[in-house]
Amino acid sequence: MGLEMTTIEPAEGERRVQTLIKSILDELEQLPIWNGLPPGIVNTVRHAVIRIAFGAYRVGMLVK
Hints:
single chain; mainly alpha; elongated
């Protein structure tokens, strides 16, 4: 059971990360509490999701 390394083109990787970010934000927006949050908190959460997703991609943690 070894780890299999997968290499993808940068454009494909960025597309996958953007798809991941969109799906996470769509799920968050479905939460009943989301609409009641102040705009500053919503913006902070969105930026955190984006930073974490792209950070994980850059260090190679998102493979498939």
